[in-house]
Amino acid sequence: MAIKDQNIQDFLEELSSKSPTPGGGAVAALTGAMAASLVEMVLNITKDNKLRTKNLNKIRKLRGQLLKLADEDVAAFDEVIAAYKSKSKLRIKKALGYATEVPEKTRELSKEVESLARLVAKRGNKNAVSDAKSAVHLAMASQKAAGENIKVNKRALARLN
Fold first, then answer.
1. How far apart are CA 4 and CA 6, in angstroms?
2. What percentage of the chain exceeds 90 in pLDDT?
3. Domains of the chain listed by start with CATH number
4. Cβ atoms within 10 A of the Cβ of 25, count?
5. 27/109 Cα distance (integer angstroms)
6. pTM to 2 decimals?
7. Nearest-CA neighbor of 60 among 116, 126, 107, 104?
8. CA-based max dimension of the chain
9. Distance of CA 23 to the CA centre of its chain
10. What are phi and psi of 46, to 5 degrees?
């Protein structure tokens, strides 16, 4: 079942299970999506129409892309596991390459979310500044978590060469 279709309790149960997926990469993307949701909320209650109009569709798109990446990360890592079982070096390399691309996208999109969060923290509704700043911290956490996944996958790729 797609992460977006799960309730929070079920997702957390799945996350804490013995299964390697979902894991840190999915959580990184989901954290980025939560940051985007906070930015969107602050924009929705901000009176500055220009700020809201210019950024609302952008942040919604980022949220949707990050949510998709959470499921994409699960699929990518499931393929890594299947590739190792196949013992095909080419398949493993391909799977690890894709498993690196997904968190790279997560990190890139979360940087955009962080930038928008910083903007709404400065110019958005002052009663929601803590929400905007929370979004900044979540977007940064998403980037750092994605970075850890990138590192481990690149190391595994380097060992194959």
1. 6
2. 98
3. 22-160 (1.20.120.680)
4. 28
5. 14
6. 0.95
7. 116
8. 58
9. 12
10. -90, 135
